[in-house]
Amino acid sequence: MEFNDDCPLSPAAVGGHLVRLVADRDGPALAQAVSQVSLIPGARTDRPKYEDVLAWLMDAIVEVVEARLGPAPPGETFVLAVRHTDGHEPDPAELPASGQWVLRAAAAFLGDAPAEAERQLAEAGRELDPLRRAETLTDTLVWLDFLLDVELPDPPDVPTSA
Fold this sequence. Notes:
This protein is an all-alpha fold. The chain is built from six helices and no strands. 25% of the residues are buried.
């Protein structure tokens, strides 16, 4: 997918393309696309803003979690816990900066904390180092890909009023 002025792309189109590249395990095309999306702000105007693509990916993470587990009951929120394969919870400081960002942002989005979610997206958007931007985008994609692939039981039945 080339970005050009003749075909402006939405965050959903770019995010969906990135998700497809991860699912297809197309490393070279993914590297090129992530590089294009991660360029320094203002360098190109023919693509959606980096943080808008991240927001779309975070929304997708929330949708997948809710589709798999059901929505959080009224007055409650999801609690996000990351565990190693051996079951122990890592200290968030053990994660790379990009992993720490994904953890904070996902917790804000899943916890229905819009102000914190916006703060996390703004923080990511202010990052000027293209490598850090690419790492954060890639880590977000990896989390979403994992959630799409993980096998979970069907969500619980949600009572509805008749």
